[in-house]
Amino acid sequence: MYNSIVLVKQVPDTANISGKVMKDDGTVNRSKLPAIFNYEDKVSLELALQVKERYGGKVIAVTMGPPRASDILRECLYMGADEVYLVSDRKFAGADTLATSYVLSEAIKQIGSYHFVFAGRQAIDGDTAQVGPQTAEKLNIPQITYTEELIDLKDNKIKIKRKIDGGYEIVESQLPVLLTVLKDVVTPRPFSAKRVTAYKGAKSLIELEKLTEENSLLYIDKLVHEYKERGLFINTLTTDDMNIDIERCGLKGSPTKVYKVESVVLASNGHKKIEATKAGLGDLVDQLMNDHIFG
Amino acid sequence: MNFKNEVWVFIEQRGGKPADVSFELLCKGNKLAETMGGVLKAIVIGSDTDEIAKQTFIYGADEAIVFDHPSLKNFRTVPYARILQNLVKEHIPRIVLFGASIIGRDLAPRVASNTKSGLTADCTDLQISDVKYLNQNHSNLLLQIRPAFGGNIIATIITPDVPTQMATVREGVMELSPLEKPKEEKITKLEYKSDPVDDLVQIIKQHREENKVNLKAAPVIVAGGYGLGTRDNFRLVEELAHTIGAEIAGSRAAVDAGFVTPDRQVGQTGVTVRPKLYIAIGISGAIQHRAGMQDSSKIIAINSDPEAPIFDVAHYGIVGDAMQVIPQFIEVYKHKLK
């Protein structure tokens, strides 16, 4: 039996940025960006589910983010996660990787014992690949980044093939360990129709509170109890639920600050237009021969 | 706060060979240290590192701090991180730079987390400047500049309130410029004290291939993008490259689509190149890509969209369908150079 915690993140779909997303001052209007499940995190969830199927144990997915990040936790349930946690508080907003890893590590300590922490290598909105290793450091456990393959797992030891610069290495680690996973390692399974039906009504504390605001006949405590009974409660951790130092969270706890943001405005350097004809291309090749680049 | 203006560069070695990126960072670090009136130190960790330590003075190091021990021969996260974080806590350098390699991206966050330092990944430029931030004046801050958010913006990151500013930089971004007269050698050997946690992870086997692709050294590069549409169409890019004796490269989107292998990716998260000629085909020219090629001596852009930003950095622009332009180009080239 091996229990896994999987760190997942909802990210703006930076690959599909349209004009509407950029504000006039050149900053990004995050609310206009479609939010998606960071793909490498989905791959790491799949790997955790495969470990569970082979060796037994539990898979718990955790995300830190705004209330709407519950969307990806429901998707984790559709794929097969046993439990999910939303770590959400206004005080967590504006966190850099150091503050994020602090909150995540405290959330993991709260959730309980584990053999593995899985994470995607990096998230597409920042591409930093820092939160995994920083979380491992704060949990005081070893890390194996750039995982390519789980080779063997026995006697509380795991053997892994990981990428290195110019090749690969095989390493063996004691458990618990944090693994960050490359995107080609496994293909995430599609949602199970049965699980979608079962879990599409799952709700976080914040979503349930919203229901009570809209309907005065509902009481939050009763509602939470009912959703828990039905296995539809998305566990929610705020600053009140964790042993946490507010000074180390969010913007306050982030040593890196965005000093300046410039939108990318290109001044054209006035390139020479070449006609896509034999004559045009012939002139171009001549010029490059004159410059001693060709020939 | 008063700081000793020390700039440190972590010198990475793979199988006993120093990584180019570490020496590139020494060259940049030397300039940063000069601007601040500080010193540059190379931190060398490994086994049999004498040669590597000596080389650091060619690239501007004022001092090499060396941890040499047989069990440090190959990089492992925990012992390397322990050595660095203890050293950072003891000496409180102002800046620590790492290559944004697999080793650097594994090690730097761990050290930054332990020492509560700021860390910015994949910087495309580093500068020293006095900064006024939230009505406070800070002297000699490190400006950490990187594209962000899908390349739509360029962000300047600062770390104003903690003693140590850390950053990673990809290979090739900073220029390698050996000093005409190397600095005087000053090597300080420090003792590695092992700890049981160092052996939680053991390396069983390592396999490394000589890097066959060397984009940085190629005088001519032909790069294809997602605009080519299919892997089959991308073969035309390869054919052009073979005809004119160029290396093949691709944008990140082309790599993600499987048109070309990741070791040939040009851009912020790939390789930075400065060839004599760079031909960009079906590449729209997002900032991350341009960051990796805009210093090429000559750039030819071929794109069906006349508004594509790649034309803004190009010297020659050809608006047209790559499927037609490339075969024509090949024909003309063969005719002229036969």
Describe what this molecule looks like in 3D:
Chain A has 295 residues and is α/β, with parallel strands linked by helices. Chain A has eight helices and 14 strands. Chain A has helices at 39-55, 70-79, 97-111, 131-139, 193-199, 205-214, 220-229, 278-290, and strands at residues 4-8, 10-12, 35-37, 59-64, 83-87, 116-120, 143-154, 157-164, 167-174, 177-181, 203-204, 233-237, 257-263, 272-273. Chain A is globular and about 80 Å long. The model of chain A has no long low-confidence stretch (mean pLDDT 91). With 338 residues, chain B is an alpha/beta fold. Chain B folds into two domains: 6-199, Rossmann fold; 215-336, 3-Layer(aba) Sandwich (Rossmann fold). Chain B has helices at 20-36, 50-55, 77-91, 102-115, 231-244, 252-256, 287-290, 310-313, 322-336; strands at 6-11, 13-14, 17-18, 39-46, 63-68, 95-99, 118-120, 125-133, 136-148, 153-158, 165-169, 187-190, 201-208, 220-224, 247-250, 277-281, 298-303, 316-319. Chain B is globular. The model of chain B has no long low-confidence stretch (mean pLDDT 94). The chains are: A alpha/beta (295), B alpha/beta (338). At the A-B interface, helix 3, helix 4, strand 7, strand 8 and strand 9 of A face helix 3, helix 4, strand 7, strand 9 and strand 10 of B.
Number of helical regions of chain A: 8
Helix content of chain A: 25-40%
User: Shape of chain B, please?
Assistant: globular
Strand elements of chain A, count? 14
- Largest two-chain interface: A-B, 80 and 88 residues
CATH architecture of chain A: 3-Layer(aba) Sandwich
Biggest sheet details of chain A: 10 strands, mixed
In quaternary terms, these chains amount to: heterodimer
The secondary-structure class of chain B comes to alpha/beta
Number of domains of chain B: 2
CATH superfamily of the largest domain in chain B: HUPs
CATH topology heading of chain A: Rossmann fold
Strand content of chain B: 25-35%
Number of strands of chain B: 18
